[in-house]
Design goal:
- The complex is a heterodimer of chains A (139) and B (379).
- Chain A has 139 residues and is an alpha/beta fold.
- Helices cover 40% and strands 17% of the residues of chain A.
- Chain A has a five-stranded parallel β-sheet with strand order 2-1-3-4-5, sandwiched between helices.
- In chain A, strand 3, helix 3 and strand 4 form a beta-alpha-beta unit.
- Chain A is globular.
- Chain A starts with 11 loop residues before the first strand and ends with a helix.
- The mean pLDDT of chain A is 82.
- Chain B is of the alpha/beta class and 379 residues long.
- In chain B, helix 7 packs parallel to helix 10.
- The C terminus of chain B is likely disordered.
- The chains are: A alpha/beta (139), B alpha/beta (379).
- At the A-B interface, helix 1 of A face helix 6 and helix 7 of B.
Amino acid sequence: MPATDTRPGTKTILVIDDDADFTATVRAVLEREGYTVVEAESGAEGLRQFRARHPDLVILDVMMESPTEGYGVNEAIKYSGDFDAFQQTPVIMVSSIQESPDDRYPRAPEVDMIRPDRYLTKPLDIPTFLEIVRKAVRH
Amino acid sequence: MDGAQRGEPIVVIDDDYAMRLACEQALAKVGYTVSTFADGAHGLEAVGTCKPGLVVVDLKMPGLSGLDVITRLHAIDPTITIIVITGYATISTAVDAMKAGAYDFLPKPFSPDELRLIVRRGFERRQLQLTSQQCEVERELQRRRFVTFVSHQLKTPLVAVHQYLDVLRQLGEAPEAAEKRQAWLSRCLVRTDELRRLIDDWLTLAQLEGGLLGRQRTRVDVDETITSVLRTYEGLGARDGITLTADVPEHCPVHGDPTCVGVLIDNLVANAVKYNRPGGTVTVRVQRAAGEVIIEVADTGIGVPADALPRLFDEFFRVRQPGVPKVEGTGLGLPICRRIAAEMGGVIEVESTEGAGSTFRVRLPDPEASPALATGRSA
């Protein structure tokens, strides 16, 4: 369920993941830290929310409608030119698969385009995750 | 098993009529099917249609040479076993032929026994080659499917449960914990149940594919199975205002494994209820026509978009429609149905209109139409 309006002075984090349970726990830990959380259940919905809410950080699952949906969303945010000033928004990709985009697409010239700012495996180590989030939204 | 038993034809290409006749007689005598051709061009033309497992070709021919024939044969089908007939002074040519892909060579003159022996060895080698290739491909596919399955399908519910428990533990006695605990613990149970059902379904599919399940052939009264399944789903249907009806004649036997027939019908009815709408209907109909028993499960539910239909029976394929909430399920129900139908010598089809509903149709051989099946002979 999308969050209520952004509280002034807080950072907004967009969580794009098709597993509502995963999102529920991420929302709980982020809200406890004072962030405003917006959710999306698909890549398409995620891009819609990105455009509407201009989050300070995106947490993005890899496998959603398709096994590599997350990479497509990452590329859209950073390179499609649709998002102007918000291309610099940090993106943290998450997946239960222990694989980085470099491993998955070792020979693709576009691997630079699809490389997120961070790649974390699920389940998240919560303290580490929160530290990474803190650093990412500071910029 | 050699070519004669498998029914794979042999093609003989030789410009010498006497040689063609001798080869044909020697090989037909032990049961091979032989086609002969006087030149390479005609022989190659025929390969496409008669699909030989083995070709015997004379190296020295006018027109298209034996070597050319071998090279082209290889291009058509690299698995065809090739035996070259060579003249007494052409060992180096024979070596060239081997390099080009021939399996063995037979120098003239040779006896019918020598020909038969080399042909038999040729077929044996072919069998080994085909089996190992098949195994390799199958092994690779199995490995990849398993890796994808383990990585994602099994881990996803485990990840959810882990994070729920991890955060609950970290929250300790904090007020947020109290308000979230009940809801989250329920979700943990839902996800672990999901994981368990997933493993059960995966095992069912593996057992079906491995021949450990589904091979039994007893008489199963489909009408009774349907009655029993509908009774199971009556309560669930009533909760959502869905009516379940059966249009099934009293006498409807099929030949199969009773458990599997139950699973097949249960999966289809479960889907018909799950993907339905309040006030909708599920109708199970059985007909007998043209040597088949046709079981139809029709619903008035959300239907399937046309572009998703070809993939509907793929493992873990879920139709994602915007605005439609995710429906609970393992993603293996339909692949299991397809497998069970196939084990019984039948097929499963689907017709669907998005927004209106779907009809799944299982066609099984009618044991009462074919006397051979009715004897209960095991497959």
